[in-house]
Design goal:
alpha+beta, 7 strands, globular, binds coenzyme A
């Protein structure tokens, strides 16, 4: 996908953003994160979601939940036609800035063992493996990863 990366804007996700993607969430983003789950996430005072937009089109989003000074990365998802263009990188960079601003010390996440692209992205940002949950997903194990925020 050819596009001008300098035009990508990262903002805090709101309900309007969610409404804009509700009809294409399953097909163009991911088949796990439903409108209802995300609506609940956005309603929580402990959750922060970021959205990546180009010319007002939503091309990705990511969010985390905080528990005292720790956080859990809930998801990071790029629109299928925009993958491998650096949007995941951009979202992750901004997630880390949000965590720093909130003085979060550690962030954890779970990722399917066969999700190579996500694991590479996380490793690139310094996440390291801290455990394995056998058969956590229907057809895969989960790798538990962690990152200490400076
Ligand atoms: C994981 C995901 C968010 C990455 O987003 P992206 O915009 O495609 O990633 P980027 O283009 O910014 O690439 C970031 C890094 O990820 C890795 N990466 C991305 N796609 C990859 C692939 N197909 N194979 C291997 N590594 C890959 C690379 O290490 C890349 O680093 P590089 O720029 O130094 O090469 C995207 O693939 C996605 O939405 N997947 C489906 C949802 C998902 O599984 N989310 C994670 C679990 S919740």
């Amino acid at each position: 996908m050819e596009f001008d990366k300098s035009k990508v804007a990262i903002t805090i996700m709101n309900f309007n953003d969610l409404d804009k993607i509700c009809n294409c969430l399953q097909n163009e983003f991911d088949d796990f994160w439903t409108y209802d789950i995300l609506k609940e996430e956005l309603s929580s005072e402990h959750s922060i979601y970021l959205v990546a937009k180009i010319d007002n089109q939503i091309i990705g989003f990511a969010g985390f939940k905080t528990i005292f000074n720790e956080a859990e990365l809930m998801n990071i998802i790029v629109r299928k036609s925009f993958r491998n263009c650096g949007i995941g990188n951009l979202l992750m960079k901004n997630i880390l800035l949000e965590l720093q601003a909130r003085k979060i010390a550690t962030i954890h996440l779970e990722v399917a063992k066969n999700n190579i692209s996500a694991i590479h992205l996380y490793q690139k940002f310094g996440f390291y493996e801290v455990g394995l949950r056998k058969n956590y997903y229907k057809d895969d194990d989960a790798i538990l990863m962690e990152l200490t925020i400076n």
